From TrEMBL:
InterPro entries: Metallo-B-lactamas (IPR001279)
One Pfam short name: Lactamase_B_2
Highest taxon of source: Bacteria
EC class: hydrolase
Molecular functions (GO terms): 3'-tRNA processing endoribonuclease activity
Protein name: Ribonuclease BN
Keywords: Hydrolase
Domain Metallo-beta-lactamase: 48-223
Species per Swiss-Prot/TrEMBL record: Paenibacillus solanacearum
EC number: 3.1.26.11
Length: 270
């Protein structure tokens, strides 16, 4: 399994254009790994998780094409995770190839509501509606959606367990602490890789996002049920400038407990 992080920030990005907090100012001065675009992750070359406002810029920066993407899997309807107009660029009037790999937009009802009805044929697009706590196949991937603890208004936010036949990934963003039922939904799984959000590192509330201690509480619970093994690789991502320090400081902080810090453009091969 290969993963490419197209973005690793929460809704505002880092630096946020309208902010001069220490984290944003530091990012402007030092650039590099401190600059974070809104989160999206490419699995292998054919499964794109989320499709937000920075996906086009990220593809340009990292020399990535999305022509091989068969599945666009969306976690929830927040604007940093889904921008429908990205998909409009698939129409024949906006591309030179006469054929393109058809794409299946696999998303919860709230995302389709946002996307609206369009000419899917012109986009070479099909739709598959999913809901939390559902098992489904996007061959070769076997996927299970988990109920995320996220803003009620976002509707049907989901996390995903993704199995590509050789490795199993837990994609845990955007979410606060899982509700009890989710641990039952996760029972029996054992992850090779966990990507977990760390949106609000220095704050206390864990209802819709996680902070440093929330990440560790979630991981401890996964250990207890056998979902996280001693050799499971863990990366944190989806950072907000409001609560997180620079990349190097995050590496130092999370490195104490063996957790890795994702950055934009990073490729990970398992
Ligand atoms: Zn988000
Ligand atoms: Zn800021
Ligand atoms: Zn969100």
């Amino acid at each position: 399994m290969k993963l490419t992080f197209l973005g690793t920030a929460a809704a505002e990005g880092i630096p946020s254009a309208f902010c001069d907090c220490p984290t944003c100012d530091h990012a402007r001065q030092h650039l590099g790994k401190n600059v974070r675009k809104r989160q999206a992750v490419l699995v292998n070359d054919d499964l794109l998780i989320d499709n937000g406002p920075d996906v086009y810029a990220a593809c340009g920066m990292y020399g990535i094409s999305l022509v091989q993407v068969k599945y666009n899997l969306i976690t929830h309807s927040h604007s940093d995770h889904f921008l429908g107009s990205n998909l409009a660029m698939r129409t024949r009037s906006f591309r030179r190839q006469s054929t393109i790999v058809p794409m299946q937009l696999t998303a919860p009802p709230s995302v389709f509501k946002l996307f609206g009805q369009g000419n899917d044929e012109a986009l070479d697009l099909t739709r598959m509606t999913i809901v939390p706590n559902q098992s489904f196949e996007l061959p070769p991937y076997r996927i299970q959606s988990l109920t995320a603890s996220h803003h009620e208004a976002s509707g049907d936010a989901m996390n995903f367990i993704i199995d590509d036949g050789s490795k199993k990934l837990l994609f845990a963003s955007d979410t606060g602490m899982y509700k009890e039922q989710v641990w039952d939904e996760m029972a029996g799984h054992s992850f090779d890789l966990i990507i977990i959000e760390s949106t609000t590192t220095d704050t206390d509330h864990q209802k819709v996002h996680l902070n440093y201690s929330g990440v560790h509480t979630m991981l401890e619970k996964m250990e207890q049920i056998g979902a996280k093994r001693p050799d499971t690789t863990v990366y944190v991502s989806h950072f907000s400038h409001q609560h997180n320090p620079s990349h190097d400081e995050l590496v130092e902080l999370y490195g104490r407990t063996g957790i890795h810090v994702a950055y934009d453009g990073m490729t990970l091969e398992l």
